[in-house]
Amino acid sequence: MMDAAGLKQKLEQLDGGGYKAYRKIKGSYLFPRFTFFVDHVQSDPFAAPSRMRVRVLQSDAGFEPRLYCTDVRQTALEDYIARAFDSAISRYVKGHRGTGKSGLVTVDSGGQEILKRTAAVANESFVEVRFAVGLPASGRRCRGKDAAAILFGELPLLVDASLYFDGHAAAGLKAHVEAAEDQEWLRRQLPGLGLVAFVADGAILPRESGVSDRPRAADPVVGFQSPEQLRVGVDLPNGGRTCGMGIPEGVTLIVGGGYHGKSTLMNALERSVYCHIPGDGREGVVTRSDAVKIRAEDGRRVERVNISPFISNLPFGVDTVGFRTENASGSTSQAANIIEALEAGSQLLLIDEDTSASNFMIRDELMQRLIPKSSEPITPFIDRVRDLKKEHGVSTVLVMGGSGDYFEVADTVIAMKNYRPEIITAEARRVAASRQDVRKIEALKGFGALTARVPLAHGIDPRRGRREKVGARDLKTIHFGAQVVNLDGLEQLVDLSQTRAIGDLILYGLRRGYYDGQTDIKQILDRLLADVELGGLGIISPFAGASGAVTGPGPESGGEAGAPAAASPDEHPGDYALPRRFEIAAAFNRMRSLQVK
Predict the structure, then answer these.
(1) 506-517 in b/e burial notation, b at 16+ Cβ within 10 A?
(2) Distance separating alpha carbons of residues 521 and 345, to the nearest angstrom
(3) What is the pTM of this model?
(4) Strand 348-352 relative to strand 395-399: parallel, antiparallel, unpaired?
(5) What are the sequence ranges of the domains in the chain?
(6) pLDDT digits (tens, 9 = 90+) for 138-164
């Protein structure tokens, strides 16, 4: 390890030289208050910025063990440190210094959710932040003196503001960690309370705009207020007694006039499978972690999914037990989305009428009289929603504004009026009982067992030409080999770093031999996430370890999955965030090359 003076001398010597001369600075350096690592040097000022790290021994950083003594607390602390580093960048870094990405300093600090990330590490041994720097250039000539200004003038300020406990407001740090702990504690209590979600009194659900997930600040902003019939009190580990609306297991219907808050409540529920930062407004909103938002997705590919509980007897004898299509309709895509969510382990479906196929959701009495069941292949969701709860323990929360037929199958009916919920279950049942036209239930038998699917390795090809090419272009797009995987329908995918991780998780599974023709999708998800739990999210990097990810015998050699290896000394990815199993499964299912048995 070289001292900081040696790095400064290198930068001065390469000033004005060809850009590739920056490669000489790769290595580790001892600064007075931290250790600095250059893990990867970009090849060009227009290429992805250089990957770097700073590390402080915990004995010097001074973060108390109680701040990282559990997985939830550690995740929240690391999240806070990454955000603090990002905030310090905006205060101390000058910014653009030349050609391309010159002078750019970035860290993966996230949005409104607290996610497990690789951007920061905080444990009993050290505190570390992984970030990127666009090494300055004029044309393709090094600006070594400007690089020195970043690393010797600005970087120490970033370190002092984020990697040392004294650089933080203790109260803010404590609130951040405790807020995450309270949310995750309550999420784990929901099944025991017979609930699928909880919305605290005073929660701010509306967002700033359609393109901003920040809380709305402009008037009118209505704080959430629980109806008495569903009011639940809980004693949080840190926040004390908290009251709010508990949404019970079963079938819950959210109704109301347009612009009264139905979809706003649903949006809060779907995003609250994650913990939120203090000040977000949804810190008191918690949804079961296995909730999946279901919608129609015209045009998506479906690969041998058993949609027969919903669709059967298609014209020309099309198979719906192993249904496949390159261009799904609204109804077939929504049916497949439900089955795939159940296959991955979901016990809670979230459905909004606005993003659903109407013929999949309901066939009213008039349509039943006009088009007999013998001519209609679709068994609508209304006739399956109770079967799902009875046979598979799956609850459903639905937003409905145009179909009162669901009154008859709902256990709980919540009406939103001016963003305030009221319980109208009894009134809805009276209205349903008074109707003159009675639709027929079209489910002729139970929902039935789920059919496991086994992915085949030859359908998961990361090659583009002679090279492997896997990456996230944006939040909803993965390039996997020669194909583009479209994730537009995944409304609970919230961070580009999750998308990036999904692509590399699928590649990691291929390298580990998990697509062996015997292991089904649910088992593969279990293996992938168990490896991440054991070895950290960094193991999925294509550069992790000498052979791709893990050591020890894998299933491809007939043994058990091996223990994940640490990342190579030269590669410490700082741009992953942990995705849920459901979004990983959804990406699998949207690969147009996927083949299963």
Answers:
(1) bbbbbbbebbee
(2) 10
(3) 0.93
(4) parallel
(5) 2-168, 185-451, 457-589
(6) 999 999 999 999 999 999 999 999 999
